[in-house]
Amino acid sequence: MVTAKNRQKVIDEYFMKLRQMLKSKPLVLHLMDDIAIDNTLESDPSLEKLKRRIFELASQQPYWGEEKPARWLPLEQAIMTMRDSDVKVAPLSLIEEINRSSSVKIEDRGELELFLNFQHDIGTILYFKSLITAKTFIKQHPTITEEWFEFEETGQLTHKLIDAIWTKEKPDFHDNKEYLLLVMVKLNIIAKPMSYTMDGESVK
């Protein structure tokens, strides 16, 4: 039972257990302050402490105080609604359609790109442009036709296909190929293949 006398001890133990659970996860970096709110109290002083701390941290963000166009708000709210509805992937065409249907819209593609990059920077979304180009690429580079159709049919993305496309279309991507592939794996955009031993055990 939590009492006024042992409250701080219980809080300290709880946050220590939480840090133990998250010790190998990136989320542990966000555990900065041990502020516990007692929702059984009509007015918990810790709530005001939490509000002040949130304001302090928010005001330290690089975009704090920056103005943004009011016409961005409808699309921003639509994206937040999609995210809250557990929509994990939204193609650019869908974002453009939502924007067009809004009574207050972002007028041109350049500003839409700016909006999406801003949302990416503040952590609302992860915005990626296409990393693999369209089918028309194989007409110009028939040597990777087999790899392209294998990718379409099985989802297997070979280094030969990546090299062929990124070398021609995205040289900056190719220069940072290993890093980008690691990021894509980390974000579950692609998955590393698994191999199996004779006894059925899986290994990376």
From TrEMBL:
Native organism taxonomy: Eukaryota, Metazoa, Spiralia, Lophotrochozoa, Mollusca
InterPro entries recorded: WH-like_DNA-bd_sf (IPR036388)
Superkingdom of this protein's organism: Eukaryota
Protein name: Uncharacterized protein
Gene3D superfamilies (UniProt xref): Winged helix-like DNA-binding domain superfamily/Winged helix DNA-binding domain (1.10.10.10)
